[in-house]
Amino acid sequence: MKATILHGPGDVRYESVSDPKIEKPTDAIIKLSATCICGSDLWPYRGLSKQDGPAHMGHEYCGVVVEVGAAVKTVKPGQFVVGSFCLSDNTCPHCAFGFHSSCAQGEFMTGAQAPYARVPLADGTLVATAEMPDAAMIPHMLAVSDVLGTGWYAADAAQVRKGGTVVVVGDGAVGLMGVLAASQMGAERVIAMSRHAPRQQLAREFGATDIVAERGAEGIARIMELTDGVGAESVLECVGLAESMEQAMGVCRPGGTIGYVGLPHGVNFDSEKLFYGQRRMLGGPAPVRRFLPDLMDRVLQGAIQPGKVFDLTLPLAEVAEGYKAMDERRAIKTLLRVE
Ligand SMILES: [Zn+2]
What we know:
Oligomer: single chain
Number of strands: 18
Structural class: alpha/beta
Number of helices: 11
Shape: globular
Radius of gyration: 20 Å
Bound molecules: zinc ion
CATH class of the largest domain: Alpha Beta
CATH topology of the largest domain: Quinone Oxidoreductase, Chain A, domain 1
Distance between the termini: 12 Å
């Protein structure tokens, strides 16, 4: 088959590779229904994270099981499944505690920007639906695999409550999903920080009640004004840069909580500021597996449409253009159609 290989910065190729096969008895092979490009794929694409040789790209996936290893018990060929970008056994102490992204056997999914993919730890990673979903459901189910799961975790980690006030820092795909999550969790006020009109529009669709276009000290001042000088009890940091973390700290009220899911690049903390700030923080790669059954149900019931975050759809063979469009910020997130 052909699959997506990143050879180096800016060099994505759709080229021949060997077909994935069962390597361990706990593996499954799936035929992708659709796949997509993650904001985090842009770090190596831009040469901002180290890469040792050509890399099989893609960690967001949903599709139909075609083969399982001898030890796999919970999924079988013919079933539609969604999995997390973090592979997990779902049985170790960290999984049992809800932190599947710290699974003792855990690893990260790769090779999903392809027609077929191998999913290790299939029993602990994949969740099957009772029936085959309609084609219209596929983008929404795909979004659950990482981007929605990550936004959801940001809101969960930030302890979003019914009736609460939430600030979402970052209007990328994950930030927009954070807005959706906070709204679903019953927040009364969801303030999205965004300066791009199409993203502001999408944030409103996902449940933002206020938009703040200002950044830095001005952005903090604007949010203080909106919250009567108090700040927000829940803040979702969905970028990972020093400026965005500062923004998050600046608008979180004492006793409030920051959920941070942007992979940190150059973020440092001042211990004295942390001490006097009195804010809780929880972040990291999202334990999406914990949320999968609930989020898949919400999608299947039509309660949420996270797939609206895909604003560019291309055939998988044109994956290189998908990366380029996201890199140049012409697209928020690219869905790749698998023929
Ligand atoms: Zn585990």
